[in-house]
Amino acid sequence: MSNLPEPLRVVQLPDGTYAYTDHLPAVQPSLGVPHVVHQHIHQAPPDRTVQRLALGSGVGAGAVAAGVYFGPLLVGALTAIAANLALLAFLAVALAWGVVTVVKSAGGPEGQQAAKAIGKARRGRKGK
After folding, report:
1. How far apart, in whole angstroms, are the C-alpha atoms of residue 128 and residue 126?
2. Of 68, 73, 71, nearest to 48 (Cα)?
3. Vertex 27: Cα angle to 26 and 33 (nearest 5)
4. How far is CA 69 from CA 46, 48, 74, 83, in A?
5. What is d(CA 58, CA 53) in angstroms, rounded to the nearest whole number?
6. Closest CA relative to residue 103, chosen from 119, 87, 90, 88
7. What is the average pLDDT value for the chain, to the nearest integer?
8. End-to-end CA distance of the chain, in Å?
9. Using one digit for the tens of pLDDT, what is the confidence trace for 69-117?
């Protein structure tokens, strides 16, 4: 004996439409006329425009499925790479600023002269 429910039957209603037996409208006992219940489900169907365009242009269903699956993965991977590069750039700037600050303060007059010479060399290169 299985715990599965009975399979649903399909019946034809008096107006000619078909319905499953578990979705039959309630019958009013006094009139014998089915009571119609209007149920409105407010949910938009998924947008399939891109898939229809791709399939219509000759791309196979496998390519569409791969695009649907790998598209968000690619966006996520590129975002992670960009975040890592931004973090590395920030660390490089912070470390360079720290080295320059330490050389200026701890190096004494020689460090300050070296910083001035580097600054002059940079200004000289920009002018050329």
Report:
1. 6
2. 68
3. 130
4. 16, 14, 9, 22
5. 9
6. 119
7. 76
8. 92
9. 888 889 999 999 999 999 999 999 999 999 888 877 777 777 778 778 8
**Pick from 117, 115, 121: nearest CA to 99:** 115
Say how far apart CA 50 and CA 67 lie, in whole Å: 10
Residues 6+ apart with CB under 8 A from 36: 25
Three-state SS at 117: helix
Distance of alpha carbon 24 from alpha carbon 8, whole angstroms: 12
Which is more confident, 39 or 76?
76
Residue holding tokens 């080295």? 99
Angle at 78 between CA 73 and CA 79, to 5 degrees: 95
- Hey, is 128 helix, strand or coil? coil
Which letter does DSSP use for residue 34 in this model? B
23: tokens are 């979705």
